[in-house]
Amino acid sequence: MQPTKEQSLWMYENMVVSRRFEEAIEKAYLEGKTPAFNMANGPIPGEMHLSNGQEPVAVGVCAHLNADDIVTATHRPHHQAIAKGVDLKRMAAEIFGKSTGLSGGRGGHMHLIDPAVNFSCSGIIGESCGPACGAALSRTIQSKPGVAVAFLGEGAANQGAFHEALNLAGTWKLPVVFVIEDNSWGISVPKAEATAVIRNDVRAAGYGMPGHYVPGNDPHAIFDVAGEAIARARKGEGPTLIEAETYRLAGHFMGDAEQYRPKGEKDALFAKDPIPKMRERLLAEGCTATELDEIEQRADSLVADAITFARESDYAPESDALTAVFV
Amino acid sequence: MLDQPTNERRLTIARAMAEAMQQEMQRDPRVFVMGEDIAGFGGIFGNTRGLFEKFGKERVRDTPISETGFISAAVGAAMDGMRPVVELMFVDFFGVCFDAIYNQMAKNAYFSGGNASVPMVLMTSTGGGYSDAGQHSQCLYGTFAHLPGMKVVSPSNAYDAKGLMTAAIRDDNPVVYMYHKQLQGMGWLGTEPGATLNTPQEGYTVEIGKAKVVRAGSDVTLVGLAMGVHNALKAADKLAEEGVNAEVIDLVSLVPLDRETVINSVAKTGRLIVIDEDYHSYGVSGEIIATVTEHDVSKLKASPARVTFPDVPIPYAKHMEQFCLPNPDKIIAAYRKM
Ligand SMILES: Cc1ncc(C[n+]2csc(CCOP(=O)(O)OP(=O)(O)O)c2C)c(N)n1
Prior knowledge:
heterodimer, A: alpha/beta, Rossmann fold, 6-stranded parallel sheet, two-stranded antiparallel sheet, 42% helix, 10% strand, B: alpha/beta, 2 domains, 14 strands, 36% helix, globular, binds thiamine diphosphate
């Protein structure tokens, strides 16, 4: 399954928006954290997990989804949220802890929930899988269209919740697709030292569903495989497991010294940065430089507007901390 | 501030914990350590630094992100004669693996009529104050202490951290060792200076189940643990400027709980404030107050008070989180209302 030109450009635009967003967040995050890095300080405090380099998986999958479909995501959720269409301004405001944020500042960057586009995420590893099954089940029971996609990291594929959810999905033939972003690291632990199999797609066999591995951090290849899987789910033919190779160009979190990385790994990954690669490919396929420049400029201003909106928004009253526990 | 033996070695809690583990691993080949990012990385909160280089990957094992798997495995290894120290990176993650902890680790000694033992340490980080939001900032002291069969300790300083870790490893029972992130000495998330203390090089134990009077006073008893102790000490300093003499008790251990030290102190002061970063209801603060009132309510000159985290998930935004957290001013305000 190959993307139309429109779909290709949509993927490119969302990759660029995502990258620019992360760059802007990184810059703002570092404000107030010098000379001594202290996570608690600055306009964006707390942990920050950036998705630089992992954009292809999010866009290759979400290109097949509409607002009605469900995405459950991870502790590293920005690229997934952007590709799913979460409002960028409200997402930025949430990360800045402002009243205009998705939760008014209660949740923060690991807890982005946007019911308008059926997006949610969790900071607990593996916890995207179960809720995706439940949402898929709900659509089945209600005879409503829609599929659910659970994103997770390759480290999360060793969590009990992942295996239980796959068995549930396989047993009940749920319209759900599990998408593993294999960036080969779980914080400092390499995949090979934590996983009994080399590739997680083989695990699908144990749960009665097809499994696919997509090498190369290639948006078009992911688009292809995800398209088949999502179409299958829409037809009621059951779940699929996809593992896609991807690259984490940033540290695990901001402030990570990354001493565990073998020498040269980062340089090698940057040389394979998927965004310039995608641009080259689009040019080779006949897109014009002007066309792509325009996309990049649009991405820049979208991100700039979102960050400005976040900065200029007010904080909620501190006592709002005590509200919204129940609805 | 704390009255401890002095020498020239000021250690952070992180280093004190690592030193205790290292010394116990040297003494006892049955001791081994496992958890996420605890080998080459040295633990996200620095508490296993140097162990991997010294003992290698057989005894210092990075695990998959499979908490149920490796914590249950520690239970099995402990029952088979080993002395595992396992790390649950953040206490908040107990939700994915609690059965291993409270139904297996904590109950197998009892189910065997005392014929089997589960000598393991589960170390886990607690606490917020740095905007890590609702799944990475909890204390959950009461949740663990509520369930029978596991000892629960939480140091407020490096001296106790080392002695408690040594005692926990030598204990024949499961010990949950809860270390507060903001006391840990990791500069990148800020640290309470009062937690970094002179710590002897040679191995020693701090008794599990014994509270400490860390500041003597006669007007009000402030009871806390971990971060709460430092908030209490700061409040006591401010109260002293007004001529109010606060006694501060560091609980050190929640299970067993040294009720006697608290009761004796309140018998003297007649006033009790409990400081607990855990949620307000159904927790340590209620337990301490019940302990005192059950024993002899007539000793109280005023209703006891508690300075705790309100019963809401921990908010991300800094101003909201700070609004919810205990602090010295809230302790002083509680005293003024008495
Ligand atoms: C249940 C649970 N255990 C541990 C953690 C701590 N933790 C946060 S991210 C992470 C690594 C996750 O690796 P992976 O799933 O591959 O995702 P990546 O970070 O590489 O995107 C760990 C261990 C957690 N958040 N939840």
